[in-house]
Specification:
The structure is a single chain. The chain has one domain (10-500). It is mainly α. 72% of the residues lie in helices and 2% in strands. A hairpin with a 4-residue loop joins strand 1 and strand 2 (73-74). The protein has a three-stranded antiparallel β-sheet, with no helix packed on it. A two-stranded antiparallel ribbon has the order 1-2. Helix 6 packs antiparallel against helix 11 and helix 10 crosses helix 13 (319-340).
């Protein structure tokens, strides 16, 4: 038996290798650097790692070689756009993570124990969140450029496992946070099992694990169609779980509410980009010739997801749960881009992912500022009159809500218009009609929050707004400026995306 040495293209893999190197250095810092110096060193290291990786992504965007790691990774125009989007969102999320005081002082301590109280009194800070973030980012970068099922599964677990841990690091509502982490882990394990089951059926259908091999079998029709249908169904379950689509959404509200808000922002934005990146690649390349088999089901899921997220959000009295159901509705809107199966749908999906991701991080950054003596306040009833007490904070949050609603002169309007136009061109008129209706429903609960903040009197137990630090200001201002710019003058970014939005098969 002869051993064949793997051929690796380190240039294409370099952004992920840079992130992994930074994460490993972060682990070493946790082991050998004093507690007093860890926060600033970890922050500088994390930001430097992400920035260097972002620069490298732009450097290699025009590379001639598109395959790496023996064909298990493919780097093309959409791969470049997905990776750049993930890194930009991660950078602004790290600013928010660094400024968040709601991480537990000692993750391993039992909630309410003497050990935990002692750690709080000493002013300890959990800095393990920085290398965990980098490990998750590495998995996210690999997910949308994977070109075989094994690599895709490895990337799925690589991005998921750190998030399971990060969701349980809340400082004040420890039990709720740990419950959220456990639910996320258990449901994530089930979704991974479905994904593996689907991968096994696709291998049985095609005799290959590579996307190219499976696509060849789909085009040639050489396998058992039953295996193909089951494989598509179960692989789709794993991907739909990560994007929070109905009926695989049950984890989203609890995890969004229980996790530290900075982690929620990072998870809600960056994970969606990675998951939809992988989904777009699979459906646009591998399953494109089997469109007849998955379009009806995916269209039904998209319609149900949009309507369910919009209707249930109306009944929410917690701002983080409201944003969670809003995220579910947006997953339905993004599925319209998958169903479109054309270049316009791909370009619109990438634009939507960037615009929505940035606005999401900005909205959660504002949530971290509304507090009382016990910490963050997410009860919407206590946000009444916020516009009178802190008009700037309330105005910025209102603007992000209007972007989510798709009001003109915001990035959300351009994103929804583009993605619905692409779906309409492909003939998915039912999905477009449901999307427009659910957008109108969603506008109701967004505007309801705006009315609550500006036109409702404050309660006796009203909240206060803390003065944001420089780090949080950077996050909020960046998100606000990008949301305005993409709503007023989106042409440069749209043209840039159109230039690269073509999958290489």
């Amino acid at each position: 038996m002869t051993f064949t040495a793997p051929v690796l293209n380190y240039t294409i893999l370099s952004p992920m290798l840079i992130i992994l190197a930074g994460a490993l250095i972060g682990v070493m810092i946790e082991a050998f650097v004093s507690k007093a110096l860890r926060p600033i060193i970890q922050l500088i290291l994390t930001l430097a790692t992400l920035l260097v990786a972002l620069v490298q992504v732009f450097r290699i965007r025009g590379t001639e070689s598109v395959s790496a790691a023996m064909g298990s990774v493919i780097f093309d125009g959409p791969g470049f756009l997905f990776q750049a989007t993930i890194l930009v969102i991660s950078i602004i999320s790290v600013f928010l993570i660094a400024d968040n005081e709601n991480f537990t002082a000692l993750a391993a301590a039992i909630p309410g124990s003497a050990e935990e109280q002692e750690s709080i009194q000493k002013g300890n800070k959990v800095t393990e969140v920085y290398p965990l973030t980098l490990f998750a980012v590495a998995g996210m970068l690999l997910f949308p450029i994977s070109s075989d099922l094994i690599t895709l599964f490895v990337a799925l677990e690589m991005l998921s496992l750190p998030l399971y841990l990060m969701a349980g690091l809340s400082r004040r509502r420890r039990l709720l946070s740990q419950e959220a982490a456990l639910k996320y882990f258990l449901l994530g394990a089930f979704s991974s099992a479905f994904f593996l089951f689907g991968a096994a059926y696709l291998y049985g259908y095609s005799g290959a694990i590579s996307f190219a091999g499976i696509r060849s079998s789909v085009v040639g029709g050489s396998g058992n169609d039953i295996f193909l249908l089951i494989g598509i169904a179960f692989v789709s379950v794993g991907l739909l779980f990560k994007v929070g689509a109905v009926p695989f959404h049950a984890w989203s509200p609890d995890v969004y509410q229980g996790a530290p808000t900075a982690v929620t922002a990072f998870m809600a934005a960056a994970t969606k980009v990675a998951a939809f990146g992988a989904m777009l690649r699979i459906y646009y390349t591998v399953f494109a010739n089997a469109q007849w088999s998955w379009t009806p089901l995916l269209s039904g899921i998209a319609i149900i997801t949009m309507l369910f997220g919009s209707f249930v959000a109306i009944a929410q009295r917690d701002v983080k749960r409201m944003l969670a159901y809003s995220s579910i509705a947006h997953a339905g809107f993004l599925l319209a881009g998958v169903i479109a199966l054309n270049k316009a749908g791909l370009s619109a999906s990438i634009f939507y992912l960037f615009a929505y991701g940035v606005a999401t991080v900005g909205a959660f950054a504002v949530v971290t500022l509304v507090r009382d003596s016990s910490g963050e306040v997410t009860d919407l009833n206590r946000w009444a009159g916020l516009g009178k007490r802190s008009p700037w904070v309330a105005s910025v949050f209102a603007f992000f809500l209007l972007a989510f609603a798709g009001i003109p002169l915001t990035s959300g309007f351009i994103g929804k218009f583009s993605i619905f136009s692409a779906a309409y061109e492909s003939g998915a008129k039912g999905v477009v009609i449901a999307g427009v209706l659910s957008s109108a429903i969603a506008a109701f609960f967004y505007i309801r929050v705006i009315v609550l903040m500006f036109f409702t009197d404050s309660h006796e137990d009203a909240t206060t707004v803390v003065i944001p630090s420089v780090l949080t200001r950077i996050t909020v201002i960046f998100a606000f400026v990008i949301t305005v710019a993409l709503g007023v003058y989106p042409a440069p970014l749209i043209d840039f995306i159109n230039k690269f939005a073509t999958f290489i098969r």
